[in-house]
Amino acid sequence: MSRQFREARKKNNLKLTVAAKMLGVSQPTLSSWEAGRKSPTIDNLAKMADLYGVTTDYLLGRGGSQDTENTLPLPYDQLRVSNGKPVWSDKYGWLLISSSAQEFIAATGERIPFDAAGEIHDIAPRFAEGTIPQSDALTQSEVSSQTQVWVEPISPDPEMREYLRGWYQVKDHFVENEYGTKFSLDSYAAKWLAFKSNI
Asked: Are the C-beta atoms of residues 170 and 146 closer than 8 Å to each other?
């Protein structure tokens, strides 16, 4: 991942100090990201992708190419040894592999047997994105009164939106998903919206 950060910066002919200033971070901070000593926040990852003109998937090392239209389906044997890996199903969207149970787990908690999910890919086809909920978004005060909400990130990057959307637990000043991704209540309606139920 850190190699991708440095590579993307160099492709744009940006010096470390200039890129750091444009990202709004210190030069040592950007240097530590590029060296792999620290990791950027999701917001900083999105800023880096915008600045360098690449996708967040590229920065995360999830495929060397920007064009994912011609991805091949993953073979069954690979599913059996990839426990916990996120994969894409044309039928269900993003799923997590549960190798021991030989099933996928959807963001809704639904469990789908390997043979019922259709073709599975390690990355989503270009422009693929799940459906946005049709109900009205909750107000910030309504979010605070819930225990769990469906989060839709606000971003021009469809890959970032697809990666971050899903069920989040409501805490005191933020919401958090099972992987530790957090959205602050202070950034509500600026960076994310919440819904009572999934589509």
From this structure: yes
